[in-house]
Amino acid sequence: MNVDLQKKPAGPGAGPRVAELEAKLEKAHGQLMGMRDQLAAAEKARKDARAALVEAKKRLGAKKRDDAASSAPPVEHGDDKVPAPTDDGAEGANGEKGYMSSPVTDAFEAVVPSESRNNNDGPVVKEGNKTSDEEEARSNAVADGDDGKKGSPEVELLRAKLMAKDMEVYELRARLMVIDTEVDDLKRKVMSKGTELEEMKAKLMLNDELVDKLTANLMVKDAEIAALEADNADLTKVAEEAAEAVKAASARARETEHALRESAAREARLAERLRASEHAREALEAEAQRSRVQSEQWRKAAEEAAAVLGGGVDRVAGARNTDKRRYGSASAGACESEGTTAKEGDEDGTSGKRKAGGAMRALSDLWKKKAQK
């Protein structure tokens, strides 16, 4: 029997059941090897016992032949009488036949074909064992042919030992058959688990391919996310810059609004000043109008005074008053006319002064009268 155990690698995805079956298979293989060793030892002991039995039978047959030859009567050739053959050959044949048809050998012969069918080329039990057993049986039959129906005690003892060895070999072979059956079952289980393992490996390979595809897709998505993050960072930077620009624009707008408010306030103040200036201008115009009226009145009074006073002084005073009306205001002209009159009066001497003083008095009296009117 030869049990070829090709141990397959468990693989990363093998389950504990496969490991347990492999452990059982290893254990059964160890037991099978031990049984083979025991069977080989038993076969060797059986062969040694048979060889010793054959040798003893040969010695015993030779001794019996010598004794028979010495005790046999002489052969009478003249009467053509031949001594009758002994029945040792028949008895030996019967003895060998009885030995060959013993229950142990029958069981042994029944075990050998079944084992040869289960295990084709075992290292211990070979196909030539049956042939060697038959040859030994023939040699035993030849040796038994020289014996009588009753063998010597040594031969019987050897025969008993041989039968015991045959029984031991039979038991060992029966146990070996049981172990072979268990090993075959374990092999089938291991093969089924190996098939399941291959299917699981195929599924795992498909899953690995799917994982690789998902990993590639994930890498692509990561690249897209990285690009989006970069764009987002750029947009965030642009948004921050825009926010800063908005803040700066808001600050400038506030400053501009403040400046506009200040400008509006200044404009309001300027408008108020302008209105005040307008009022002042109107007041000045009214005052100028009054001054012109007064100047006209003063002119007329002066003319009247000049007419009263007469002479050169009147002409000079009239000329002075005419010039003042042309180039100056009415009040200033009046003052200048008075100054000029006073100056001319000083230049004219004491007489002129008296005339001027009289004229001024007359003019003031006239002015008072007109003012009262």
UniProtKB/TrEMBL annotation:
Residue span of region Disordered: 57-153, 317-373
Coiled-coil ranges per UniProt: 183-301
Domain of life: Eukaryota
Keyword Methyltransferase among UniProt keywords: no
Keywords annotated in UniProt: Coiled coil
Keyword Coiled coil set for record: yes
Basic and acidic residues bias locations: 57-68
PANTHER family (alphabetical): INTERACTOR OF CONSTITUTIVE ACTIVE ROPS 2, CHLOROPLASTIC-RELATED, OS05G0514500 PROTEIN
Family: Belongs to the ICR family.
Protein's name according to its UniProt entry: Uncharacterized protein
